[in-house]
Amino acid sequence: MITFESVSKLYPGGTQAVSDLDLAIPTGSFTVLVGPSGCGKTTSMRMINRMVAPSSGRILIDDQDVAGIRAVTLRLGIGYVLQNAGLFPHRTVLDNVATVQRLLGLNKVQARAKAHEALERVGLDASLAKRFPAQLSGGQQQRVGVARALAADPPILLMDEPFSAVDPIVRLELQQEVQHLQAEIKKTIVMVTHDIDEALTLGDKIAVLAPGGVLHQYATPLEILTRPATDFVASLVAKDRGFRTLSFETLSGLDASGLPSPDAAGLIDMSSLAPGWGVQVNGQANSVSWVNSEGQVFGPHPLVRFDASLRTGLDAVLASPTSAALLVNGSGYPTGYFTLSDLGPLLRPSERART
Ligand SMILES: Nc1ncnc2c1ncn2[C@@H]1O[C@H](COP(=O)(O)OP(=O)(O)OP(=O)(O)O)[C@@H](O)[C@H]1O
Fold it and tell me: Which residues are in the ABC transporter domain (predicted)?
């Protein structure tokens, strides 16, 4: 647990960067600090690894005040990913990643072996290990930055706008990779971003900061979207709010229809739904194809699980040529279907509030 206790930061020039911040970040969670430029996100984060000292208040890691831990010792247990990767330009990718293990006392061979593992974990090809940072794309550099921060297996990872310097497609890729990685490694991650979409996508919990470093809300993405605590938070999430909420709600409560049994060739007769239509189950592919009476095949279309998000369910319906999507059970076998009108009750906000 990382705990901020009444933490404030007043810089020498008189800027109040953080005001009386109380925050409890659970071990293993992904917490995002979000807010407009200059609202004290980076300052707050840097107080965790003592790159910035608070003017008042305390920061505890597992009940230990960080002010009492030697800065070097503290930072060896906290990975740090910077906006522009912050790689050493004259060291190879491999040696960049091996840096922390070298500081921890491993010899060159051991450190490089660990670095290879870390590069593999973030999906970087081994052939890139001998290159210098300038010979990599922005996205690759950022992956190296993540690999370096993770190489020594620190329990805490701080990330300062890690994806803001790459183009939107690479950004999405990196976000997905970090999500997968976190599901595997379960570090305590604290990330700074000014992008509310990124915060909603990645955070288990989001701390919304306003100018002056004032905390307006600390809550899950769904709570932030559906119950913004202040007008400031509401204005931050105003765009596409209703649509975004669909990502955080599931299909539970959906009143689906049962599926007829497939014939010997795996074709399911769907004519009661749409005359002349059938569905062909595609074996292991976890998808189906729709077939019309003229034998035209549409697909493959994804199968939807009951624990999928409302957004996934809606997307599957909109992409289907019959406006129906198929549900699968836990073993991947199609058991039912639903249409836009079945989704209707779940999509209506008043109904959603009741479930
Ligand atoms: N070393 C410093 N000395 C004086 N003022 C500083 C210093 N570092 C930051 N500040 C000021 O403190 C405030 C908060 O800065 P901080 O970098 O924490 O904000 P931020 O929310 O991370 O902003 P951004 O999204 O632009 O990075 C800003 O007004 C900034 O100008």
Answer: 2-237
